[in-house]
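Lab channel / #folding
Pinned by the channel admin:
"Please post every new chain as: sequence first, then the structure tokens as a reply. Keep commentary short and put observations after the output so the thread stays searchable."

First post following the new format, from NK:
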Amino acid sequence: MGFRMYLGKAAAPITPGSWSAGWNSTGGAAADASLVFGQLSTSETHTNDFAASDGTSGHFIAVRRYVSPAIQFAATVGGNINGQVLCAEAVATDNAFIAIGVKVIKSDGTDRGIMLAVTAPVAAGDEMSTTLTNRSFKDSSGNATIALSSVAVQVGDFIVVEVGYQYNNTTLQSPGHQSGAIFNTTDLPVDQTTTASDNGWVEFSDTSNLSFGLVYIGTTRNPIDNGTNATTPVVISGVGDGVPRNGTLVTGDLLVMIGYQKAASATLAISATGGQTWTSEAAVTSTAGTLRTFWCTYNGAFTGGDPSISYSASVNNTLVAHIYRPPPGTSWAINVAQAGSSAAGTVCTITGQTTTGSDPTITLAMWGSDDDNTWGTLTGTGWVSTGWDQYRNLAGQDASMSAAHKIQTSAGATGNVSKTQLANGPDVTAQSIITWGAAAPAVLHPQICS
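Reply from TO:
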């Protein structure tokens, strides 16, 4: 499998200076969005983007641009691209076809190079339906695996995927597409029939030369949000082939497991290692719950089954796992030690940390409450929700977890981060924050011995 990324809704990290030349109309395009790894959160709900045609048959109408994270290392990138997205036309006579273009831009938004000139298929079977239906991105020859031109990318460049449609009518209609997903672990399949609101995606085949630095990959959980679990131990089943969703875990990924038990001073511990070497952070407690973080650098293979955490009682036991990928050639280490606290108000604030050194860092903030709270209203510059907005467990008297993270490429203060209990609160929470750094290997200087 190639390097899969998802058509998100969150704001793009940079505004491209222009659209590719192949688009005939860009005036009705939606705001730029992010091209992301990992599953989309509840804040990235289904997005219906429509742009009106310009009344000229055969023209390409731009709808939205998706911008990747910044590229970490200079390289020549090419290969192929393929992908899927839900799309629709207003009436059957519109004769609209999903269109795609790909380019690389510099850090100032200007073009570095064109990887794919704007293209769309022309066969009748590729025409949009009048209801949102899955379509493959294809070139003008009908190839779903589309060849890309190679571009020499530089550090700080961005890949831009431009999406729109080719319109073969003169009536002013507004075909469009839908991307993103909510509470969804399913990607759109490679077909032309699916109507389920699954994740829109693109996949690059050239994985060896493409690095985006430290990035969030994905999240999984047991139970699912608003589910029920009171067993121990709790297993993240299939974590080896289900997270990240753009393929299997890669050697060197940071795998973080966070357990929460609705009981003060509970005992949480690694029950099955899965063949990994785990670091167990100190438990963080409130008057009603216990939160504990375990992490490892993934060694390339799970052995002896999936990893799990044991709990001291069979109550509201929740386990959430997050995945982060470091730049090539780096390794994980604690940059700022864990700090724990508790809160009892509607707005639960965690004091930020100050990172050190020159390594890129990921700071993860976590909340665990003693009711089935929903969480939202995230505040804190640069902080984003991690995976879903919350992870509710309806066993017994209920419990809930939430998380946010911030990635920094240079040392400095993360700033405080807050989340608000939107429903069934306020309830007491156990809170923690911890920072990892993706450390570059030490430089070995040659020695001359005589």
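NK: Confidence is low (pLDDT under 50) at residues 238-247, 443-450.
TO: also worth noting, Residues 215-439 form one domain.
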